[in-house]
Amino acid sequence: MKLREDIRKWRRKNTIGERIFDVFNxxxxxxxxxxxxFPFWQILxxxxxxxxxxxxxxxxxFPRVWDTVAYETVFKNEAIVNALLISILRTVIGTIVSITVxxxxxxxxxxxxxxxxxxxxxxxxxxxxxSGGMIPTYITISELGLIDNFMVFILPSAVSVMNMIIxxxxxxxIPPAFEExxxxxxxxxxxxxxxxxxxxxxxxxxxxxxFFAVGQWSAWFDAYIYILDADYLTPLQTLLMxxxxxxxxxxxxxxxxxxxxxxxxxxxxxxxxxxxxxxxxIFLITPFVQKYFVRGIMIGGVKE
Length: 304
Hints:
This protein is mainly α. It has one domain (72-304): MetI-like fold (Orthogonal Bundle). It has 14 helices and two strands. The chain has helices spanning 2-13, 16-47, 51-54, 69-76, 78-109, 117-129, 134-143, 161-172, 176-184, 189-200, 202-218, 221-226, 236-246, 267-301, and strands at residues 254-258, 261-265. Strands 1-2 form a two-stranded antiparallel sheet. α4 crosses α14 (267-301) and α13 (236-246) crosses α14 (267-301). It is globular, with a radius of gyration of 25 Å. It starts with a helix and ends with a helix.
C-alpha cells in the first residue's frame, strides 16, 4: 500500500517531462551500475568454476562447473597467505598511525591561537601541489633505512593533507564550550582531544579512517620499489600485480585435488581467486562505517 501511495504522490507532483527524466535517470544509473559490477561478478563466477573448464570461456554470470579448488590452492600457498597477513597488518597499523597523526595535526591547526598555524598550513598545502619526485623520495627512504623495512608502509603515509583538511574543518565547527568545560576541570590538551573532541568528531574520523584503510589495503607500488630482497614483506596487492603481469605463480601451474581426482589449477584461476580475496576485507569494513561516511563528508567539507 505504501508503495502505491508513493507512486500516486510522485505522479501528482511531477509533470510528464519530469517523469520521463526520472525514468531515464533510473535506467541510465542502472546501466552504469551494471557496467561497473559486471567485471567483478564475472571474475567471481570464474573463480568458483573448475579451472580447466573455465579456460573454454563463456562464463559470465554463474559457474558452469562449480569448484572451490582455486581458493583451496590459494590458502595452501604460503606466499599468498603471508602476503595477506602483511596487507592486514599494514592496513591496521597504518590506519591507526595515520588517523592519530593526521587528527592531531588537524586539531592543532584548527586553533586560532596557535602561532605557527598559517606557516604550517601553507607548508602542508604546498605538498599537495608539488612533489619531491621519485628519485629524491627513494634516496630519502634509503637514507632513513626504510628499504626492506615494514615501516616503509607506515611512516611515509602517516599524514594526508586532504584528510587533514577534512578533519580540520570539522574540528573548527565544534562549539568551543565543550573544550572550555574540560579545560576548566583541569584536563590537558591531549585529554581534551581524546575524551571530548574525538567522540564529537566520530563521523569525520570514521570517514577519514576508511580513506586511510582503503589506501593502505590497495597500495602496491611502495612495496614494488622499496621491498627488494625481503620477499616476506610483500603485501597481497603487490603479489597480485606480479601474478597478473607474469600470468603465473611460483613459476608454473599448481596442482590441486578435488573429489574427481588430481587437477591442474591454472594461473588464471589463481588470479581470479586472489582478486576476490583481496576485495573481501573492504566489503566487510564499508557497511560498518557507511552510516558515518555521508555525514562526515558533508560536515567536514562545509564550513559554517
